[in-house]
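Inputs:
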Amino acid sequence: MRIPGLCVAVAIALAWASSADASPEDLFGWGPRSPAMGGTGAAASYGADAAYTNPALLSLVHHNVLTLGFSGATFDLHADGAGLPGRVSVIPAKGYVVGAEVPIPFGGILRDRIAVGMAFYTPTDALLRGNILYPETPEYALLADRAQSLAVRIGAGVDVGYGIRVGVGVATLAELVGGIDVINTAGTVGAHVDDQLVAKYAPTVGLAYDLPFDRAPDGSSRWRIGATWRGKLDATFGVNIDASKLSTLNLPVFNIAGVAQYDPEELSVEVAHVRDGWTLAAGITWKHWSAYPGVFEPTIICPADQDCNALTPPVVAYSDTIVPRVGAEKLFALPRHVALRARAGFFLEPTPVPGTLPSSQAYDQTTQALVDVPTRFFDTTRYVFSLGGGVDLGDYGPFTVDFWGQYHLLASTTVSTCAGGSCSPDPGPAKLSGNVLAYGLLAGVRF
Amino acid sequence: MSLTGRREGGKRRAWILFVSSCLPVSILLSSEDARANPLDAFGFGSRETAMGGAVAADVSDFSAGYYNPAGLAKARGFELSIGYFRADHSLSMNGMNSGVDPVKGIVGGAVVPGKIYGLPFAVGVGLNLPDDRLTRVRALAQDQPRWELYDNRNQRLWFGVNAAISPFPWLQIGGGVTFMAATLATLDISGHIDLIEPTDSSLRHQVQADLKSVTYPDFGARVEVTKSFALALVYRGQFGLDLNVAANVKAGVGAGAAGDLTTLALALHDDTIDSFLPQQVVLGGSWKLTDDLRTNLDVTWVNWGAYVPPVSKLETQLSAPLPPGTTLPGGVMAPTTPAPTVILPISIHDTFVPHVGVEWRALTRPTWEGFVRGGYEYDRSPIGAQTGATNYVDRDRHAFSAGLGVRLLAPGKVLPGDVRFDVHGQLSVLPTETTTKTDPSDLVGDYTAGGHIWNVGLMATVGF
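Outputs:
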């Protein structure tokens, strides 16, 4: 492809890309390669992918590379049953992807041993979306809204020697905290506003080891194991609205708060094998969902020294999950150092949401009393199939182009939504199903 | 021209076409994350602050992302920089310290230069990370006296990623798009409000909140007129941090945990724009008088006339109908919607800000060099006399700065380039003046305001 044509293709793709993700890297992976290889990469990554998958593997970087592109996802999610809409309306996700990989040109014993990388994703619609809906509103909050979030990850990897590589990184999000005090001065209303965006950080630590047997003719190991630990990354939305001075009414202070984004603590372990142009990777990821507090917070905060009868949100018993992944890449070497790569992969993402959800409480203005309502916080296990490919123009130019696609098949699941309560009318079970299509196109330039 | 040369020329043209057409897109993608009021007021990097910020034509390190992205293309090698600065305000009104929060945080960045088809190309990352918060939106009543340009505007993250190329040895161009987050939120509250024990109210809420990106462009050019003289032109876009919150309360109102006397419908819509940064154009020059002495002059046009003050625009609708002749518990009458605050226009005008700086390489040794720097900046206050109901307090600012630098040359095998240490100090003097109100019955009355600001910092840079 001619260079201007490449640029135009990227620009056009950027213009129409219309879906994308939110803790997008946790849902779909990040980078030119990893999403096409079933989200593997803790042992098999190289380049900017490693800023997310395993920063230790950034130490494989030996050229400055800037990667630009887009990714997106469309959702076809269903919830069928009494009082349910059938198809659940979800805004597609879309966003821009930027990656950078830079070797640090130390000399002496540190020569060609240290590199840094950056993984960046920004949704086109919103940097961060926090939809915290009434519990009875059907939503796939762990799937759709999590795909609307800025992602910023920076890492550094070091080649220690003896086949050992270590890396560290950090991911960051912003959360909103503050308050709006409504004031009424002699019949004229105004407000004091004090809101802050506060950074939240989560560390990443990576380790990789080239096993000392079965070496290729150039001396490199054909087997590598890798492990990556990622800390919890969450962002809340919390605004107190004090309208008690607005009028003669003795109004409480409204605590408008909830967890807008949440990535659980994770540990990935993987083994990769390289032979005859093939790269094969398999691994598992443990996700600590049982620590997830849920999205809801109470609207009225009870003072510490007081007993209150304010409503408390439902508590869902989330459970930890283990995600198995496999991925493969085949390299086709062409003349003049042109390289084509084909990729495929699969992973199974179990849901952390239990099959039985507790009921929630609400005040019914018709009966003027508290009633039980169903909790429709939906999620299902996903079977994810991925494909992708890439081309390195070699001597024709310092450019690469990669693409990937993922098909997420949601396992048909039946969920009880009013356990422990007496919802009226009885909502019956909710039948969940659907699919997600995710995709990405990225171009890289070496300089 | 040989076939090889023609082909190479074609590649160069292709690369220029690629860069010129893709650079805006790439910068949009790589982009920057935030905005620069603290950089306007207190500089970015110790060398640059010590030189009064007069570096538009004389910058090639991480701070070029702010001062002139084109300068990145002059970078000699990969560089990493990190430092810290702190600015403490001693601003007072009527002899009382105004308690303006200090501005402090980590400063740093990296420059990654390279070449494609022989053309110098570089990407730079710059960061000003405040200790306490990324951004803050704070809106006060318009009649409450506050240091309008210092009270909150400098509490802000700045994170920029820029790119630059040098298509000819005498020309560098660069730019980027910065984006920050604005908040757009709709809140719904429903249930039952207990007027006797408000904390017993049976209320729930739902939130639909987006942090929206707000983008603005920065770009610059640098022209090397002669070996010892360069000119620069920089544009920085306009920016405002928006907080737009709509809250809707629809709840039964009663005395006790259940039973409604009436239904309250309350709608609040608050829209606040804070941390407004006006667009700017910088024209700069740099003269290398001798091998060891350089002097710079920048003039910045600041479009303060477009300024939006951070005053909350709150609209309310309140309804809690009661049958005629009845009252709420405690004899409380049904509330009525209060009138909105009328926001008075702010008197503010564009300004031209001169910056001058000088750098002297005072010591040259085989393994190290020493630098002495100085600078001055004059910020004429853009805000008109506050003789009416508003109290946006501001004064002219004279900023005197000085700094020292040490550059270690090839300090070891591991560090084949150089290592630099720079420190700066800046004293901003805001002369004390008296504001006289036209209305003798003004609730705030006449006041005297002035003070000074100390800004100190240090940087360490490793160049490869």
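Remarks. The radius of gyration of chain B is 27 Å. Residues 10-463 of chain B form a domain with the Porin fold (CATH 2.40.160).
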